[in-house]
Design brief:
Helix content is about 40%, strand content about 15%. The chain is built from 10 helices and 10 strands. α1 crosses α9 and α2 crosses α3. The strands form 2 sheets. A 6-stranded mixed beta sheet has the order 1-2-10-7-8-9, sandwiched between helices. The protein binds pyridoxal-5'-phosphate.
């Protein structure tokens, strides 16, 4: 089947803007930096999961589902975007969140509530799959027709969103007459980076795709990227390679652990905000920008290059971190 024939619900506001960041580039004294604004995909504060959800929604509608089910951590952007997609299509959403219910609900969790999602809790990631099965069984028993959106929206169907995003970027770069030496993105469950890498191969796009892990070790991320890529290759007969070694993933910025703020993220958030009026998030894009800044310092990227920072969203989580966002003691750059 040709990729264009795969059912898709057009809920994302596309193309997302492509913008230069001249003041940030100047402050860093490194490459010319541009940003791709997937924080502006349009649905309930946007983010990268909206591109993936276009394909999950289409499949859910084909199956006549009436409930979207997914899982994530307390401040999951993916859960919030899934809840918004469900609301927009008159479906229910059931979110299994990992962690303990916080005393004060803010950020994405507040939005989950406003979007009318049913929120359930599981204390740790270990028990998650079992509890998801139990939740699906309970919904079936209640007569609902649940559709399970995978963790992070990351399987071959979700990755399609970023295969198409690469085609979108290629068109924008042509119109702007700019070329990118590299594309930098936060990476975690892998749908985004694997989609970008597949898109680059399919559309003969020559930039390197560089992932900054927000938690898992490099080999864990690479295994995920390779699994999603081989599933896509097999399902749609795509001419893409799936070997894990091809993926550039940096895991030097995960010391704090997933979602734990350090001076790296704080420095990046303040820098982007003060130089460009651009809001990054504490968990993903703050860490990815911090990583980009460090890679510039280590001359992985040089001042004669042009680098695209893919903003994957997540900004509502800023509010849940309001007590940890004071500027770092020393400058990052
Ligand atoms: C989920 C998410 C990512 C990671 O994307 P994956 O496809 O899971 O690797 C990056 N940034 C934000 C803001 C996210 O919500």
């Amino acid at each position: 089947m040709h990729l264009d024939e795969i059912p898709r619900e057009r809920i994302a506001r596309l193309p997302t803007p492509l913008e230069p960041l001249p003041r940030l580039s100047e402050a860093l004294g490194g490459p010319r930096i541009w940003v791709k604004r997937d924080d502006l995909t349009g649905l309930a504060f946007g983010g990268n999961k909206v591109r993936k959800l276009e394909f999950f929604l289409a499949e859910a509608l084909e199956q006549r589902a009436d409930t979207l089910v997914t899982t994530g951590f307390v401040q999951s952007n993916h859960a919030r975007q899934t809840a918004a997609a469900a609301a927009k299509y008159g479906m229910r959403a059931a979110l299994l969140l990992i962690g303990d219910p916080p005393p004060h609900e803010t950020g994405n969790l507040l939005l989950d509530r406003l979007l009318g999602a049913e929120v359930l809790w599981t204390p740790s990631a270990e028990g998650r799959d079992r509890e998801l099965d139990a939740l699906m069984d309970r919904l079936h028993a209640d007569g609902a027709r649940p559709y399970l959106v995978p963790h992070g929206g990351s399987n071959e169907l979700g990755a399609l969103g970023y295969i198409f995003a690469m085609a979108e970027l290629a068109d924008q770069l042509k119109a702007e007459a700019v070329e990118m030496d590299a594309v930098v993105t936060a990476t975690s469950s892998g749908g985004t980076q694997s989609g970008l890498v597949m898109g680059a191969a399919l559309f003969a796009f020559n930039s390197e795709i560089v992932g900054i892990s927000v938690g898992p070790e490099r080999d864990v991320v690479r295994a995920r990227l390779s699994a999603i890529t081989s599933a896509a290759r097999d399902r749609w007969d795509l001419p893409v390679e799936a070997n894990a070694q091809q993926f550039e993933v940096h895991d030097d910025y995960v010391d704090g652990g997933y979602g734990i703020l350090t001076d790296l993220e704080r420095g990046a958030i303040h820098l982007a905000a003060r130089h460009e009026g651009l809001m990054l998030d504490p968990v993903y894009t703050g860490r990815a920008m911090g990583g980009l800044i460090d890679l510039i310092r280590r001359e992985r990227f040089t001042s004669d290059q042009t680098v695209l920072f893919w903003h994957t969203g997540g900004t509502p989580a800023l509010f849940a971190y309001s007590d940890r966002l004071a500027p770092p003691g020393s400058d990052l750059w």
